[in-house]
Design goal:
Shape: elongated
Strand order of the largest sheet: 1-2
Number of helices: 6
Strand content: 5-15%
Largest sheet: 2 strands, antiparallel
Distance between the termini: 26 Å
Structural class: mainly alpha
Order of helices and strands: HHHHEEHEEH
Length: 181
């Protein structure tokens, strides 16, 4: 009887250790909760019109402000936004491509393995405007020779990082409670 009890205990410990080894491998719903917290951090960069660490974006060029006042850009694309703000949100497409998981160009990659989960949040360029995201984020020059100053929006500042970490800890705490239950 004692040997059987020991074997049963050893089997339970084996299951527990196996579960603990995979603790950091989040399930789809758990990964989505953490990813959504990260997306909110990117959204805040757009709301605040600043980079992840709080550096304000350059104001819009005078020519851009004039296009916005007319309600049509140099390509003939109409839009309805104020001349000066919001920056990088003529149509909200760029914002939504990074922050809405249902957007067709949103990229949310979840990689699991060896007891951990890696989340990659991003967006793909519109095929009609290649390299647009890089130019808007890091700066560059348009085909017409207009200079685009850097306006970093990708990334999480300290506050957003803490929120993602807190969400991940909450998810892991729930998993541990289920294991103990």
């Amino acid at each position: 009887m004692r040997v059987i009890a020991t074997l049963e205990t050893d089997a339970r410990w084996g299951v527990l250790w196996e579960d603990l080894a995979h603790l950091g491998e989040l399930g789809p719903r758990e990964a989505e909760l953490v990813a959504d917290t990260g997306r909110r951090g990117i959204h805040r960069n757009f709301e605040r019109e600043s980079g992840p660490y709080g550096t304000p974006w350059h104001p819009l060029a005078q020519q851009t402000q004039e296009e916005r006042a007319r309600g049509i850009d140099h390509r003939g694309v109409p839009f309805r936004v104020a001349p000066e703000h919001p920056i990088l949100q003529r149509t909200r497409d760029l914002l939504l491509s990074f922050t809405d998981p249902r957007h067709p160009r949103n990229v949310t990659q979840v990689e699991r393995g060896e007891g951990s989960t890696t989340l990659v949040l991003g967006a793909e360029d519109d095929p009609r405007t290649p390299d647009r995201i890089a130019k808007l984020h890091a700066g560059g020059t348009t085909e017409a020779g207009r200079v685009i100053p850097p306006r970093p929006f990708v990334g999480l500042g300290p506050e957003a990082q803490r929120q993602v970490e807190a969400q991940a800890r909450a998810v892991l705490r729930q998993r541990v409670e289920r294991l103990a239950g």
